[in-house]
Amino acid sequence: MTPFILFGTFFLFMALTVPIGIALGIAGLVTAMYSANISITFLSQGLITSTDNFALMAIPFFILAGEIMGKGGISNRLFDLANVFVGRFTGGFAMAAVITSMFFAAISGSGPATVAAIGGIMIPAMVAEGYDKKFATALIAAAGSLGIIIPPSIPMVLYGISANESIGDLFLGGIIPGLVIGALILVWAFIYSKKKGYVGTGESFSFKKLFQALNKAKWSLLVPIIILGGIYGGIFTPTEAAVIAVVYALFVSMFLHKSIKFKDLHAIFRNAALSSVAILIIIGTANAFGTILSMERIPQAFAEGFLAVSENSIVIIIMIIIMLLIVGCFIDTSAAVIIFTPILYPVALEIGMNPIHFGIVMIVTLAIGFITPPLGVNLFVGSGLSGLSMPVLARAVVPFFFVILLGLALIAVIPQLTLLFL
Question: Pick from 292, 418, 296: which is nearest to 25 by CA?
Answer without folding.
Answer: 292
